Amino acid sequence: MTITIYGIKNCDTMKKARSWLDDHGVAYDFHDYKTAGIAKDKLKQWSDEVGWETLLNRAGTTFKKLLDADKEGLNERKALALMAEQPSMIKRPVLDLGPKRVVGFKPDIYAKEVPAKARKNG
């Protein structure tokens, strides 16, 4: 099983999540939105699974700097278009565990969701 963590290299939450994975001996691939972008079909797949409201980072500066007109009438189509155009609006990290995605970082959730067999010391 290949685990992929999606996010932005210099994000503090990403650093915490990657440290957790490293500390638990979890091998993973890192996908940086800033350099590699994100496919619209991947965003749609995630949205279908976890909901666009979960994926959209409303607390970030990129979202807050949007014009009010862009924030009004948000629906899945509009939110996905915004996230595809400006990937910093995607909540970080998105941890792809194969059959499941985990959005955001909380150590207790990672401890529960990351399979023990993926951990060298688990």
Automatic annotation (TrEMBL):
It comes from the Bacteria. PROSITE patterns: ARSC. Pfam families: ArsC. InterPro entries: Arsenate_reductase-like (IPR006660), Thioredoxin-like_sf (IPR036249), Tscrpt_reg_Spx/MgsR (IPR006504). Gene3D superfamilies: Glutaredoxin. Coiled coil: none annotated. Belongs to the ArsC family. This is ArsC family reductase. It comes from Bradyrhizobium quebecense.
